[in-house]
């Protein structure tokens, strides 16, 4: 069944505005975009707190879908957004028609975001948060950023049961951003329901390759 609603989940330190470069293209292609703002970020910055964890972010996605009574949706997550997106999928099983991970890791049950990273990077991240009251300070980038609770990265994914088979899953892999997800992509190639698409881009696929990403999402919505 064609999907007409794309629920967009931004990455760490970012906000719903990160999806702006592709919104017009999705609408022109007949897909209504729903850029969700995770608590503690963007227009919800005043909710920032060390208590915000993965499930807080996942609930924001679920609440948006339920409040708008969206059906046959596509979930699209960039970077860290792939983690709360997957957790939200657990509560939205009957509504999800396709899933797209945009240069994001694909978590398994019981795994947290930090466990996807090299041990030294994970340890450094924990130390930075410990020195800042459980928060990771907003990094300096070419756009506005917000702090992130370390709890968002240390809370494990908890699924009630395996996610449903038969739902198309796509991993958009940025070839200019090396990391753990490249090995993961090799493991996913050829697996049932999975498609891996490479793009000549850095990690910010949304900003660097917006037309490519629009075309990919529209193709996955058919």
Q: Which SSEs are present, and which pair or pack?
A:
Layout: E1 5-9, H1 20-28, E2 32-36, H2 54-67, E3 73-78, H3 82-89, E4 96-102, H4 119-130, E5 135-136, E6 148-149, H5 150-154, E7 169-174, H6 180-188, E8 194-199, H7 205-208, H8 210-220
Parallel strand pairs: 1-2, 1-3, 3-4, 4-7, 7-8
Antiparallel strand pairs: 5-6
Helix pairs in contact: 1-8, 2-3
Short description:
The chain is built from 8 helices and 8 strands. The chain has 222 residues and is an alpha/beta fold.
Average residue-wise pLDDT: 95
Q: What percent strand?
A: 15-25%
The N- and C-terminal alpha carbons lie at a distance of 7 Å
Q: What string, H for helix and E for strand, traces the elements in order? A: EHEHEHEHEEHEHEHH
Approximate helicity band: 25-40%
Helix run count = 8
Main sheet overview:
6 strands, parallel
Question: Low-confidence parts lasting 5 or more residues at pLDDT below 50?
Answer: none
Query: Taking Cα atoms only, what radius of gyration do you get, to the nearest Å?
Result: 16 Å
Shape: globular
Instruction: Give me the secondary-structure category.
Output: alpha/beta
- The largest beta-sheet arranges its strands as 2-1-3-4-7-8
**Record field, number of beta strands:** 8
Structural overview:
By secondary structure, the chain is an alpha/beta fold. The protein has eight helices and eight strands. The protein has helices at residues 20-28, 54-67, 82-89, 119-130, 150-154, 180-188, 205-208, 210-220, and strands at residues 5-9, 32-36, 73-78, 96-102, 135-136, 148-149, 169-174, 194-199. The protein has a six-stranded parallel sheet with strand order 2-1-3-4-7-8, sandwiched between helices. The protein has a two-stranded antiparallel sheet with strand order 5-6. The longest helix has 14 residues, at 54-67. It is globular, with a radius of gyration of 16 Å. The model has no long low-confidence stretch (mean pLDDT 95).
């Amino acid at each position: 069944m064609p999907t007409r609603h794309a629920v967009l989940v931004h990455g760490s330190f970012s906000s719903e505005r990160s999806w702006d470069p592709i919104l017009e293209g999705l609408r022109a292609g007949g897909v209504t975009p729903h850029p969700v703002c995770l608590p503690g970020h963007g227009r919800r910055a005043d909710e920032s707190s060390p208590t915000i964890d993965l499930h807080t972010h996942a609930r924001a996605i679920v609440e948006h879908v339920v409040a708008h009574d969206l059906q046959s949706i596509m979930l699209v997550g960039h970077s860290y957004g792939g983690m709360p997106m997957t957790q939200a999928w657990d509560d939205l099983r009957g509504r999800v028609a396709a899933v797209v991970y945009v240069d994001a890791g694909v978590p398994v049950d019981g795994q947290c975001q930090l466990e996807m990273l090299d041990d030294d990077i994970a340890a450094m991240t924990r130390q930075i948060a410990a020195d800042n009251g459980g928060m990771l300070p907003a990094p300096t980038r070419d756009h506005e950023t917000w702090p992130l609770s370390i709890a968002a990265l240390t809370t494990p994914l908890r699924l009630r049961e395996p996610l449903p088979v038969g739902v198309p899953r796509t991993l958009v892999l940025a070839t200019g951003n090396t990391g753990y997800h490249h090995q993961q992509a090799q493991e996913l190639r050829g697996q049932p329901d999975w498609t891996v698409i490479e793009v000549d881009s850095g990690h910010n696929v949304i900003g660097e390759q917006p037309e490519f990403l629009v075309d990919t999402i529209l193709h996955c919505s058919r």
